[in-house]
Design brief:
Layout: H1 9-33, H2 45-99
Length: about 100
């Protein structure tokens, strides 16, 4: 069986910090956009809307990557759990068969 690298807790914390920073940037951009109410005094308004879209796209990619990694880890965990259960059941059956007189 090929070994897939396990994401470390430090990696997860780093990913979470990056997502948090992106969320904060998104909030800032959405506040600047102000729902599209035209404000000729706010030069950043239109740029903020484009930046918000780019931030959302980045967040979606990062969340999709995180989801893929998590699903892979869940499957690996479940496979190991099933393997251990099968091993335990085989041992119990063998012990029971050894006690049954023939």
């Amino acid at each position: 069986m090929s070994r897939i690298s396990v994401t470390t807790l430090d990696d997860r914390i780093s990913d979470t910090i990056k997502l948090d920073a992106l969320q904060q940037r998104l909030v800032s951009d959405l506040i600047a956009w102000d729902g599209g109410r035209f404000d000729p005094e706010c030069r950043r308004q239109r740029d903020a809307a484009s930046e918000a879209v780019e931030t959302i796209d980045t967040m979606r990619r990062k969340l999709d990557q995180l989801r893929t990694e998590l699903v892979t880890e869940i499957r690996r965990y479940d496979d190991e759990s099933a393997r251990r259960t099968d091993e335990l059941l085989a041992r119990v059956r063998a012990e029971r068969n050894a006690r049954v007189p023939r």
